[in-house]
Design goal:
Layout (H helix, E strand, L loop, with lengths): L8 E4 L19 E6 L15 E7 L9 E2 L10 E2 L12 E12 L2 E5 L7 E8 L2 H4 L14 H6 L9
Antiparallel strand pairs: 1-2, 1-8, 2-7, 3-6, 3-8, 4-5, 6-7
Length: 163
């Protein structure tokens, strides 16, 4: 089965190079960016400004060849992992997901904070974070990922996923 997705907006961020970027939003907590929506989608932004955070679903447009086994940035053991147990860009459909802080909505421009996304990235969708829907209760396990919050926050990308 094949799907056709439409780019609804473009992320405009300070990151123009895939090397030395934060690898997760936690490492970019003070980084601001804007999202420029195509005019035909502006009506869909109505009421979004009432939310503190949003999910961004985007396309890793620089990925040329996905991989099923990768060594993620935050794996201090440097062990190859199945791509589906990682947050790397190398997934077969090259889709990214980030939770970011929503700063403001003005016309077709959405300002966000805590962004770890490359400048020019095509946005496929935006959805509000709703605590009563999305907050995980009870025991949470993070599999192989043992890096501390400080380690995650300080980790920068290298060239391992550049093709």
């Amino acid at each position: 089965m094949t799907f056709e997705l439409k780019q609804i907006a473009t992320v405009c961020s300070p990151f123009c190079d895939l090397v030395n970027m934060p690898v997760q939003p936690k490492g970019a907590k003070d980084v601001y960016a804007t999202i420029e929506f195509k005019e035909e989608y502006v009506e869909g932004l109505k009421d979004l400004d009432g939310f503190s955070h949003v999910y961004l679903i985007y396309y890793f447009h620089k990925v040329k060849e996905p991989k099923l086994s990768v060594i993620p940035f935050n794996d201090m053991t440097h062990t190859p992992r199945g791509v589906f147990s990682t947050r790397t860009p190398m997934h077969p459909n090259s889709m990214g997901l980030s939770v970011v802080e929503l700063v403001k909505v003005e016309g077709n421009i959405v300002t966000i904070k805590g962004v770890d996304i490359l400048d020019g990235t095509p946005l496929l969708d935006i959805k509000p974070y709703i605590e009563n829907f999305d907050k995980v209760e009870g025991e949470v396990r993070s599999g192989w990922m043992k890096a501390s919050l400080d380690e995650v926050s300080g980790r920068k990308s290298d060239d391992r996923f550049i093709q």
